[in-house]
Write a structure and sequence with these properties.
Layout: H1 8-21, E1 40-48, H2 53-66, E2 70-74, E3 83-88, E4 93-98, E5 101-107, H3 108-112, H4 117-128, H5 159-174, E6 184-187
Parallel strand pairs: 1-2, 1-3, 3-5
Antiparallel strand pairs: 4-5, 4-6
Length: about 190
Amino acid sequence: MHSRTYVPALAATLTAAVGLFGGPAYAQADAPADQPLAARVVTYDAGASAEFRAAVDRGAAIWNESVDNVELRPVAAGQRADIRVLADNGWPRALTTSLGKGTVYIGRQAVNEGYNTVRIAAHELGHILGLPDRKPGPCTSLMSGSSAGVPCTNPYPDAAEKAEVEDDFGAALVHPSATAQRQVMTVN
């Protein structure tokens, strides 16, 4: 993962915001400038992702390698996940309920057409992390999805996609209302 360091002013603002809205503190106002802040943890349940389980885990790991403000973790036994991942026979899609929450469908239709499973998983998780489709687009853009074509196997977000997720989750840490309920269906 990237190092998660922020300036003391942000730490103070975050601590004050968390104190006002309740919840865990991510940093202390008097923390040194080089002390990392904790990422927002978003849990996922890939138990119903069938043959795509390894691809989902790899897609989550790619996001964890790429951004600092959010960390995707498998849900602990007995806990409710923020993201449910399901396998079905349709086209891959994501239904978001709010930033970092929703359901991902890893559709076999795209896999049967030859699309890469890890790219599909990372792309659909990208929707749950707040990113829209960017079609048509080049293979270098994860969110270009199927418009990059079957030969594209790139599962990594580009710099702009990483920055957007960082901004969205950074804002959510400072302004908890930024994660207000919304429901968006994204079909790729």
